[in-house]
Amino acid sequence: MAATTAEPMGSLPSRLEICTTAPDIFYLPELVFGGLVWILVASTHVLPANPLGWVMFVSVFCFVMTFLWMIIFIAGGHKNSSGWAAADFAYHGLAAFFYLSASVALAYITLLKKSGELKTYQIDIAAVVFSYVATLLYFIHTILSAIRWKNF
Fold it and tell me: What is the 3-state secondary structure (H, E, C) of the chain?
């Protein structure tokens, strides 16, 4: 089969199309799992404050930014610009990196607190699992956004 010279140009979805396109379908799971990390870490006694403060910052920052990003895409504020495709890749790459660092810190702190109260330990384990799931979702979104940006 001969190669075609006219490749289809990539496009950014608007309105409810974000619920059916490859990288953008991850917005809602990112919000759900990021929100669960936020809720679970906030529901326990935050000790030590520094690493868990970073986890709270990451979960709140990524939750708010992903929600705003999703609203911009739903509203069509990107105007199908390649700059927005690049920004989408950059934001999700940064979010994946932030969540990975927060997940490692949260797992380490949870490991140190395993001799404490069982209920708190179980909540922290759930937060660690959801944090790694959020990391995976942001990483997959980053890869798919990079492919879309490359084909734009």
Answer: CCCCCCCCCCCCCCHHHHHCCCCHHHHHHHHHHHHHHHHHHHCCCCCCHHHHHHHHHHHHHHHHHHHHHHHHHHHCCCCCCHHHHHHHHHHHHHHHHHHHHHHHHHHHHHHHCCCCCHHHHHHHHHHHHHHHHHHHHHHHHHHHHHHHHHCC
pTM: 0.84
Quick: pLDDT tens for 87-128: 889 999 999 999 999 999 999 988 887 777 888 888 889 999
- Could you give the C-alpha distances from 86 to 7, 51, 79, in angstroms and in order? 19, 30, 13
The rounded distance, in Å, linking the Cα atoms of 18 and 67 is 13
